[in-house]
């Protein structure tokens, strides 16, 4: 059977001409996503954060199912309940570890003041493990053309590499970062599979270094001259994304990206703009609430907040908490719309897939991974891609 | 029942595509809507899906993507023709059964609120109770270990070693021992020292170590002022406040962290709610330690008032602003008022002689810090 038989029109050709690269399209509706995250953020507040498992799942389902490669949309098959169970399991494992950490820490402190600080490094190692395992969970829930992605390799081996490279980056003041990323990405991609195709990563640290070394020089300046920082970060992120996408291989399939270096300027400044606007509104709200409380209680400000009337400041405290929650909700929505959805779209529209024919008849394989890694990542507050 | 109308559009410009879940091959198929859904690929094995087993899968707008509970889990049928899609949707009665409904969301909200209420109750009632009950039960060796650990930290922050002028040390030991005997603390390992730093403070560590910082000693004008404050710190030891605080802080921060999880910016909420809850808790402990100090000073026949005056000299008037809710100690003016009420003329001998007092003042050498 000819591998190209599925091609839409035309008789089978003995020598197919080089095919144009396949496109990656995003067909999701922006207002639909906005509604999704607005509702999700509200529910997250009402449920004291427990809704995050459902919200994260819904966001991924939206992004995945609207992303089509060569005309076929992907699908995210993970479910929120898996994340919840993974989180609870992670908690059951983390609690004794926290306790042991505490006791060992005391012994270290007895020996020398602040000697337990290096113990913190063990949590960093655990975080790297969590990042790897969380990626494995997400990947095994990613389906394209009825075949899932999957991962093997060891989370601890990855964590060990990440630690060594982290040390090197620390010692070289960040200059080794491109090589760290290249090495870790190679490990992750070489253990990534789509059906029976094996992934690889061909990006090398030197290329990344050449594209971004001057940003390294600019960083100290950007920290001092604050408005420069978003530009530097946007430049860095755009270069990192492009280098990363250019290096991805799965079987014979390769990716390339033409992401311009200034692609994220707008996004970051929009987020900063929203953030400023929302903080200003929050400040005005607090000022208004304070004035209202003072006026209604009929006391001078000093009396109202003085030690004799602690009960009088409770309405204000309640007003502040409500205002803070509203602010958190709005910021959440802004971050998700701009930094998840819009960034996703911006990156995708520059991606081209070459030699997609290699993925025409891939045999399904690979087992589902548990959501424990996501649970750890959630419990330790780490995120990775 | 064979439906011919459904077959005709299947060959239209919008192809129906089938992925069998075993290979990524894109199969163009025709559909026949009979008793069950027949999926036929030219030259391939026909596949039959019962309507009751068909479920909707996520898809972009304009494509109906189906799965079947009896087929391989990733087998997908993609229908791009609206007419056929509508026809199939009408036949599959359990199409959306697995999706989260409004009731499902309400259930999540209900359970989360229940979990939150239970965590809040534990933070407000359970953890303080556990801390109160557990703190006296913590074995002395463990308490001492924790104390040793914090002592090393304290010394790292405030200076490497305690002041060691022999006459001053003797005076200090005398003062602490008199207070200790009056307090009925039988801790044989209790040690005390003066640390050479300009910070005006004093504290007691778990396991019975009392530290006086040089800054406070410099500001004190007579032994009674110092004694009241040291008695307050002994009160904390007597009440196991360190261990209570440790259990309490550990418990609440863990539970509140669990509650808020990963809502972005939650650390601020955690910080705020923790400081309110903890401050009121520690205010209570401070008030109890004050009561303890007042009792000891009365037992020694001295007035507790000078200690409050010393505190007032250091902090000034504190009231005003929102901080009063968040303050971990009772306001100094309130403490001064309370200790003034408890003021009694001295009936016992002075705690230190003038010579001893001068020796204590000079414990760290000639004024260098």
Span between termini of chain B: 100 Å
**Sequence of strands across the biggest β-sheet of chain B:** 4-3-2-1-7-6-5
Structural class of chain B: alpha+beta
Approximate strand percentage of chain A: 5-15%
Overall shape of chain A: globular
Give me the Rg of chain A, rounded.
25 Å
Number of domains of chain B: 2
Largest sheet of chain A: 11 strands, antiparallel
Order of helices and strands of chain B: HEEEEEEEHHHHEEEHHHHHHHH
Low-pLDDT parts of chain A are 1-13, 306-311
Indicate the percent of residues in helices of chain B: 40-55%
Provide the helix percentage of chain A: 55-70%
Compressed to H and E, one letter per element, the order of chain A equals: EHHEEEHHEEHHEEHHEEHHHEH
Say how many strands of chain A there are: 11
Q: What is the β-strand count of chain B?
A: 10
Strand order of the largest sheet of chain A: 3-2-1-11-10-9-8-7-6-5-4
> What percentage of amino acids of chain B are in beta strands?
5-15%
**Largest sheet entry of chain B:** 7 strands, antiparallel
Summarize the structure.
The complex is a heterodimer of chains A (385) and B (369). Chain A is an alpha+beta fold and 385 residues long. Chain A contains twelve helices and eleven strands.
Please describe what this structure looks like:
The complex is a heterodimer of chains A (385) and B (369). Helices cover 61% and strands 10% of the residues of chain A. Chain A has 385 residues and is α+β, with helices and mostly antiparallel strands. Chain A folds into two domains: 23-75 and 264-349, no CATH class; 77-141 and 149-223 and 370-385, no CATH class. In chain A, strand 2 (67-69) and strand 3 form a beta hairpin. The longest helix of chain A is centred in the last third of the chain and has 35 residues, at 314-348. Chain A is globular. Residues 1-13 and 306-311 of chain A have low confidence and may be disordered. By secondary structure, chain B is α+β, with helices and mostly antiparallel strands. Chain B has two domains: 4-91, Roll (PH-domain like); 114-361, no CATH class. Chain B has a seven-stranded antiparallel β-sheet with strand order 4-3-2-1-7-6-5. A three-stranded mixed β-sheet of chain B has the order 8-10-9, with helices on both faces. In chain B, helix 7 packs across helix 10 and helix 8 runs antiparallel to helix 9. Chains A and B meet through helix 1, helix 2, strand 3, strand 4 and helix 3 of A and helix 3, helix 4, helix 8 and helix 9 of B.
């Amino acid at each position: 059977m000819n591998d190209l038989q599925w091609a839409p029109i035309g008789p089978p050709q003995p020598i197919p001409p080089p095919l144009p690269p396949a496109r990656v399209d995003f067909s999701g509706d922006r207002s639909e996503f906005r509604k999704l995250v607005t509702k999700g953020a509200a529910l997250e507040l009402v449920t004291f954060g427990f809704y995050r498992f459902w919200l994260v799942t819904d966001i991924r389902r939206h992004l995945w199912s609207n992303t089509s490669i060569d005309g076929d949309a992907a699908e995210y098959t993970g479910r929120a309940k898996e994340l919840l169970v993974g989180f609870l399991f992670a908690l059951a494992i983390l609690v004794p570890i926290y306790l042991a950490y505490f006791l060992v820490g005391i012994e270290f402190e007895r020996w020398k003041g602040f000697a337990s600080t290096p113990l913190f490094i063990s949590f960093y190692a655990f975080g790297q493990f969590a990042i790897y395992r969380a990626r494995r969970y997400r990947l095994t829930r990613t389906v394209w053309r009825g075949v899932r992605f999957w991962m093997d390799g060891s989370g601890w081996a990855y964590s060990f590499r990440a630690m060594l490279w982290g040390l090197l980056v620390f010692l070289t003041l960040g200059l080794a970062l491109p090589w760290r990323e290249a090495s870790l990405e190679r490990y992750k991609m070489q253990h990534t599979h789509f059906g029976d195709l094996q992934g690889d990563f061909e990006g090398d640290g030197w290329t990344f270094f050449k594209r971004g070394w001057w940003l390294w020089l600019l960083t100290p300046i950007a920290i001092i001259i604050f408005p420069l920082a978003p530009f530097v970060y946007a430049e860095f992120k755009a270069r990192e994304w492009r280098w990363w996408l250019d290096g991805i291989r799965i079987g014979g399939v390769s990716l390339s990206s033409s992401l311009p270096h200034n692609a994220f300027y707008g996004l970051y400044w929009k987020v900063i703009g929203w953030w400023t606007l929302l903080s200003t509104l929050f400040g005005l709200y607090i000022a208004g609430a304070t004035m209202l409380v003072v006026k209604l209680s009929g006391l001078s400000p000093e009396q109202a907040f003085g030690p004799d009337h602690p009960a009088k400041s409770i309405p204000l405290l309640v007003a502040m908490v409500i205002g803070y929650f509203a602010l958190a909700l709005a910021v959440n929505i802004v971050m998700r719309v701009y930094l998840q959805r819009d960034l996703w779209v911006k990156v995708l529209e520059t991606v081209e897939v070459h030699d997609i024919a290699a993925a025409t008849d891939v045999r399904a394989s690979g087992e589902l991974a548990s959501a424990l890694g996501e649970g750890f990542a959630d419990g330790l507050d780490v995120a990775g891609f | 029942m064979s439906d011919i109308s459904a077959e005709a559009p299947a060959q239209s410009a919008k192809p129906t595509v089938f992925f069998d879940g075993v290979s990524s091959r894109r199969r163009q198929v025709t559909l026949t809507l009979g008793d069950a859904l027949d999926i036929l690929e030219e030259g391939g094995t026909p596949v039959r899906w019962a309507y009751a087993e068909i479920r909707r899968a996520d898809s972009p707008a304009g494509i109906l993507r189906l799965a079947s509970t009896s087929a391989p889990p990733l087998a997908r049928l993609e229908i791009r023709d609206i007419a056929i899609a509508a026809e199939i949707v009408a036949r599959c009665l359990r199409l959306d059964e697995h999706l989260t409904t409004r009731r499902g969301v309400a259930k999540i909200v209900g359970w989360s609120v229940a979990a939150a209420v239970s965590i809040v109750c534990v933070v407000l009632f359970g953890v303080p109770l556990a801390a109160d009950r557990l703190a006296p039960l913590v074995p002395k060796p463990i308490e001492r270990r924790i104390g040793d650990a914090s002592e090393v930290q304290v010394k790292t922050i405030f200076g490497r070693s305690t002041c060691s002028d022999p006459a001053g040390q003797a005076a200090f030991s005398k003062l602490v021992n008199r207070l200790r005997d009056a307090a009925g603390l039988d801790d044989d390992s209790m040690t005390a020292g003066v640390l050479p730093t300009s910070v005006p403070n004093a504290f007691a560590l778990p396991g019975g170590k009392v530290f006086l910082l040089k800054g406070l000693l410099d500001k004190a004008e007579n032994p009674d002022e110092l004694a009241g404050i040291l008695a307050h710190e002994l009160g904390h030891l007597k009440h196991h406040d360190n261990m209570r605080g440790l259990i309490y802080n550990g418990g609440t921060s863990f539970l509140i962290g669990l509650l808020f999880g990963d809502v972005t910016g939650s650390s601020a909420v955690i910080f705020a709610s923790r400081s309110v809850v903890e401050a009121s808790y520690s205010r209570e402990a401070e008030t109890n330690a004050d009561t303890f100090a007042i009792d000891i000073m009365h037992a020694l026949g001295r007035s507790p008032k000078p200690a409050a005056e010393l505190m007032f000299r250091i902090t000034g008037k504190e009231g005003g602003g929102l901080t009063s809710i968040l303050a971990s100690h009772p306001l100094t003016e309130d403490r001064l008022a309370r200790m003034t009420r408890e003021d009694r003329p001295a009936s016992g001998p002075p705690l230190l002689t003038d010579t001893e007092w001068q020796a204590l003042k000079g414990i760290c050498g000639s004024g260098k810090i």
